[in-house]
Design brief:
Number of domains: 1
Strand order of the largest sheet: 2-3-1-4-5
CATH class: Alpha Beta
Oligomer: single chain
Largest sheet: 5 strands, parallel
CATH architecture: 3-Layer(aba) Sandwich
CATH topology: Rossmann fold
Radius of gyration: 16 Å
Order of helices and strands: EHEHHEHEHHEH
Length: 188
C-alpha cells in the first residue's frame, strides 16, 4: 500500500463509549474542516457495519475483522487525499493502534463521558438492549472499553459542547501543521 505523504489529508479517530457524543462531534468537526478546505469522509461504524456485517453479532472475531476493514478503508482514503473521521467506539486499543500503523497522519481523540451519562443519552437503545439481555457485548457495560492511554486530544463532553470539542481538535491540527510544516511532516 502506498501513501501520499505530501497530502494534507489525515485521520481523526473519535473513540469513546457508545452515546458519549462521538457522532455529534464528528458532524461539527466535518463542518469546521470543510470551511478550511478539507475534503472529509466520516466512517461511521453503524453505517459501515450495515454493508460489512448487515446482521452483526458483535462477537470478538467479527469486531476484529470489522475494525481491520474500517482502518484499511480509512487508510486508503487518506492515501488519496481525503481526510477521514472515524466515528467508532473501537472498544479495544488494538483496533485504533492498527489504524495508526496504517495511517501516518493519525489523531486519536478520547471522547470522555461517564457511563451513567452515556446511558442517559442512549437514543439508539444500545445500553437498554444490554440491560435487558438482548445484547451481551455492549462496550462499557458487558464488554470492556479500553480508553486511549495517550490520546492526542481529550474531549470531556460533560464540560465541552460538540462545537468546542471539534474546535479543540482543530486547534491541535493547526498547531501540528504550523510546527511540522517547517520539517515537511505532520504527526510523523
Amino acid at each position: 500500500m502506498t501513501t501520499n505523504v505530501t497530502s494534507k489529508a489525515f485521520a481523526v479517530w473519535l473513540t469513546g463509549l457508545p452515546a458519549s457524543g462521538k457522532s455529534t462531534i464528528a458532524r461539527e468537526l466535518t463542518t469546521q474542516l470543510g470551511t478550511l478546505g478539507y475534503t472529509v469522509e466520516v466512517l461511521e461504524s453503524d453505517a459501515v457495519r450495515q454493508v460489512l456485517t448487515p446482521h452483526p453479532t458483535y462477537s470478538r472475531e467479527e469486531r476484529d475483522l470489522f475494525y481491520r476493514a474500517l482502518a484499511f478503508m480509512g487508510a486508503r482514503l487518506v492515501a488519496h487525499g481525503i481526510t477521514v473521521i472515524f466515528d467508532a467506539t473501537a472498544n479495544r486499543r488494538a483496533y485504533r493502534d492498527f489504524a495508526r500503523s496504517l495511517i501516518p497522519k493519525f489523531i486519536e481523540v478520547a471522547v470522555e463521558c461517564p457511563l451513567e451519562l452515556a446511558m442517559q443519552r442512549d437514543y439508539k437503545g444500545t445500553y437498554l438492549r444490554g440491560r435487558q439481555g438482548e445484547s451481551s457485548t455492549v462496550p462499557g457495560l458487558q464488554d470492556p472499553y479500553e480508553a486511549p492511554v495517550h490520546p492526542e486530544v481529550a474531549i470531556d463532553t460533560t464540560k465541552l459542547s460538540a462545537k468546542d470539542g471539534a474546535g479543540k481538535v482543530l486547534e491541535f491540527v493547526k498547531e501540528k501543521l504550523k510546527t511540522d510544516s517547517a520539517h515537511g511532516r505532520f504527526l510523523a
